[in-house]
Design goal:
- It is built from 17 helices and 29 strands.
- The chain is of the alpha+beta class.
- The protein folds into two domains: 2-57 and 92-181, no CATH class; 186-588, Rossmann fold (3-Layer(aba) Sandwich).
Length: 590
């Protein structure tokens, strides 16, 4: 899982919006609450900066109820999706959007782009104008890890006129601190190259996944669309993808494309992947596993902007503007809940709910560092504890953990799957309980049963929070080619795109039978626990580094767990719970 973080030393209230309507205060400054970022340089006032305004959306409870209605397997309205316009009109607030546009005009702030239904307004002005309009102060800030990278942010509270405060859900790229790189998928290149007993044929690959997880590939995936999310300067290599497909004898002539509604500039770059393979490791892993798993399916490489400072905000607004988004998305990136703004997480939830209403499925990797998350791997055991990963903790995505054993038998000698954990596994499956979002109704019974069966974990987690992951997949020692060189990679960054490719194949099967796509999966998954390979061994106390293991963590038990969810995905059983017709021309990939 590619990980990103905001500030390190933050309070539990970090990033939450102040109550609006009292003097117009919209966001409190993050700078006094942390010690990892510092002000480097002031601004002259003439610099141009763009912000993203999230207009207050209406009927969010009705949006949730409608999503559950079309997603509940017991509902007569299961699969009765809305159109793009219908889903967005449900929450539209044209009055608020118009009031904000008038205010922007009065303040001489230029609208550069706006959502068709008014949900988001991109606006730009010079710094002095923004400071006056928002009653704040902007500066260039930098993190301790990357002091040479300067980013413009508001370093004082942000306010708007009191009469207008109720029109906003938030103004992004103001007080919200930028993201910076954290460990990506664990590259096992040294162990792979040095080992005399591990060869390329021993690594996890599409053929091993297909055999172990009973994959039946539809004969035609040309109408079943899928997408890989990317950020942090990552790019992929078309040449590497072709080499991967050729080696595993996978027939796919589909070119990976970029979204029409999103930013471009980070598509395939073969030369960069040779000169700087780390800038392609995550992207190549995602693309090769997703395309290799669902060959022939049109695949989108959804990259967010070059400035790297607001990747999720940019993805949210871009995917929200797409009137025909890919039906399956995989996100192999994440941050830590306590270091994020609540308005970002809630805005993400709103847009993902609307995707679900359109029949779109979103998978997110659960992380590679157990319950402690990547702070502990990067900065040591003082960061042990329970630090939930987002967006895996969103109740409207399907979070995917990692297993070892089975498909990687020639590496681990484990015939049966266990929770992936160091030292035997390359990473430790992330999981736990959200400190922001309540436990979802669809998973309450599963979580209650878990606590009645499992060994008691050390205290410090939120037992009433949304539990994640939901399901799991192999995540240890995958083959990847980067810069024309083969290597081994481990992580939930592999697990998520593999499961996403399963959903793409089921969508193809359903499409051939004249049926709608899967949409939001979780209510159906939890209603059918027997469709998964139950994982009963392992824990997630360690990080991806065997030198950092904590006393906090969870233990596997029969049924759902906050390590591997309901278990790993058996394709045939997974397809069956959605009543997916199996085409007569399907072929078992071995």
């Amino acid at each position: 899982m590619k990980c990103v973080a905001f500030a390190l030393a933050v309070s539990s209230a970090c990033g939450q919006s102040a109550v609006v309507g009292q003097g117009g205060l919209l966001h409190e400054s993050e700078m006094p609450k942390q010690g990892h970022w510092s002000i480097k340089e002031g601004l002259q006032g003439s610099e141009v900066h763009e912000v993203i305004i999230a207009v207050k959306q209406l009927n969010k409870e009705a949006l949730h109820s409608k999503l559950m209605d079309v997603s509940d397997p017991k509902s007569p309205n299961r699969y009765s999706y809305l159109s793009y316009d219908e889903s967005h009109l449900l929450t539209a607030n044209p009055d608020a959007a118009e009031r904000i546009r008038k205010w922007l005009s009065d303040e001489q702030i230029t609208v550069t782009k706006q959502h068709k239904h008014g949900h988001f307004i991109h606006a730009a002005a010079n710094i002095s104008t923004l400071e006056r309009a928002l009653s704040t102060k902007f500066a260039q800030i930098a993190s301790k890890d990357a002091p040479e990278t300067l980013v413009i942010r508001a370093v004082k509270d942000v306010s708007v006129p009191s009469s207008l405060a109720d029109a906003f859900d938030g103004i992004f790229k103001t007080t919200q601190l930028p993201m910076f790189s954290r460990p990506g998928p664990v590259v096992n290149a040294a162990a792979f190259a040095a080992s005399r007993r591990i060869s390329l044929s021993d690594l996890v690959s599409p053929d091993k996944i297909a055999k172990f997880y009973n994959v039946n590939a539809p004969s035609d995936l040309s109408s079943s669309t899928q997408s890989v999310f990317a950020e942090m300067g990552q790019t992929y290599s078309q040449q590497d993808l072709e080499k991967f497909l050729e080696y595993y004898q996978i027939d796919s002539d589909v070119s990976v494309t970029q979204p029409s509604s999103g930013p471009s500039g980070h598509g395939s770059d073969d030369a960069k992947c040779k000169s700087s393979p780390n800038d392609c490791m995550e992207a190549n892993l995602d693309v090769q596993q997703m395309v290799g798993g669902a060959p022939g399916a049109p695949t989108t490489f959804w990259y967010t902007p070059e400035d790297k400072s607001a990747p999720y905000e940019s993805w949210i607004t871009a995917v929200s503007a797409d009137n025909d988004p890919p039906k399956v998305h995989s996100i192999s990136y994440g941050s830590i809940e306590e270091a994020l703004s609540k308005e970002l997480m809630e805005t993400f939830n709103t847009e993902v709910m609307k995707l679900g209403l359109q029949g779109v499925t979103v998978f997110v990797s659960s992380g590679d560092d157990g319950v402690a998350n990547f702070w502990a791997r990067s900065y040591g055991s003082r960061y042990c504890g329970y630090h939930p990963s987002w967006p895996a903790s969103s109740p409207y995505v399907t979070a995917v953990g990692a297993t070892m054993g089975g498909a990687d038998y020639k590496v681990t000698s484990l015939a049966e799957e266990e929770a992936c954990s160091v030292p035997q596994g390359g990473v430790t499956s992330g999981g736990g309980f959200s400190t922001v979002f309540d436990q979802a109704d669809y998973q309450k019974d599963a979580i209650r049963q878990y606590f009645s069966r499992a060994d008691t974990p050390e205290s410090g987690y939120n037992p009433t929070g949304r539990g994640y992951p939901d399901i799991s997949m192999a995540g240890n020692m995958f083959s990847v080619t980067v810069g024309d060189q083969w290597t081994a990679v481990s992580g939930t960054s592999a697990s998520s795109p593999v499961v996403a490719s399963f959903a793409t194949m089921v969508n193809a099967e359903r499409g051939l039978a004249g049926k709608p796509p899967l949409g939001f999966l979780n209510p159906t998954l939890y209603a059918n626990p027997d469709a998964f390979n139950d994982i009963t061994a392992g824990n997630n106390k360690c990080t991806a580094s065997s030198s950092i293991c904590c006393s906090q963590g969870f233990y596997e038990a029969e049924g759902w767990s906050p390590i591997t969810g309901l278990g790993s995905v058996d394709f045939r059983k997974f397809a069956a719970i959605f009543d997916a017709a199996q085409p007569h021309s399907s072929t078992l990939l071995v």
